[in-house]
Structures are given as C-alpha cells and as structure tokens.
Design a protein that fits this description.
The protein has three helices and three strands. The chain is an alpha+beta fold. A hairpin with a 7-residue loop joins β1 and β2.
C-alpha cells in the first residue's frame, strides 16, 4: 500500500516562512556592558524576541536584551579607519617611557641620577 503524501508537500501549498538569524546581546546587571549572548533563528522580529526571552531571560540571568537581525549588522572592515597611519603611541599609557628619556638627558648633561630621599 502506497503512503499518501502530506498536503504540505503538494505543489500548490504555500511555502514555509524562511528563517532569519537574529543576534542576541544581553546585559547581566545594570551598569554591565552588553555582551553577545548567541543567536536565534526566527521568521520575524516578534518570534525572535520571544525566542530570545525564552533562551536568555527565563532564569533572570539578564536585565536587558537587544535582538538584532544579522543582516542589519554593518561589518566595518577598513584597515585605514581601524588602524590610522599616524603614530599615536603617546596616547597610550605605555607608549611614552619617561625613564629612558630622562636617562638620556642626564647623560647628555653629564649629571648623575639623584638619590632617593630618605625619611
């Protein structure tokens, strides 16, 4: 006996809604940064919100959720913008070492390093 095909498998039936990837960012407590929690697959924003709430909020592990369609995320891949050609190492705490420059200036002036003060 041949099995009957389901009505959804016939040619005239409407196609199932296509699923989109939605990225979920969560905040564990007030004041914390938003962190990527994962992603959910959903056909629309409403279901993505429900899925994200169920996965990332049901145990009160998050105080805030951001749900963003993956297609709406802009990928910035520009080496000139992300790594400017100018040397700005002086703006970093370790970029400007005073000790070496002072030692060179003392050597040029012929002065010795002053002794530490005693109390």
């Amino acid at each position: 006996m041949a099995s009957k095909a389901s009505p959804r498998a016939s040619e005239g039936s409407p196609a199932a809604p296509s699923l989109e990837a939605w990225e979920v960012f969560r905040q564990e407590k007030d004041g914390d940064p938003m962190r990527h929690g994962g992603s959910v697959m959903a056909p629309d924003a409403d279901l993505a919100m429900h899925y994200a709430r169920e996965l990332f909020g049901r145990r009160q592990e998050s105080v805030r959720l951001w749900i963003v369609r993956r297609a709406d995320i802009v990928d910035l891949h520009d080496p000139d913008l992300l790594q400017p050609p100018l040397d700005r190492s002086f703006k970093k705490p370790g970029g400007y070492v005073m000790r070496d420059k002072l030692a060179a200036a003392r050597a040029a002036a012929g002065q010795a390093k002053p002794k530490a003060r005693s109390r």
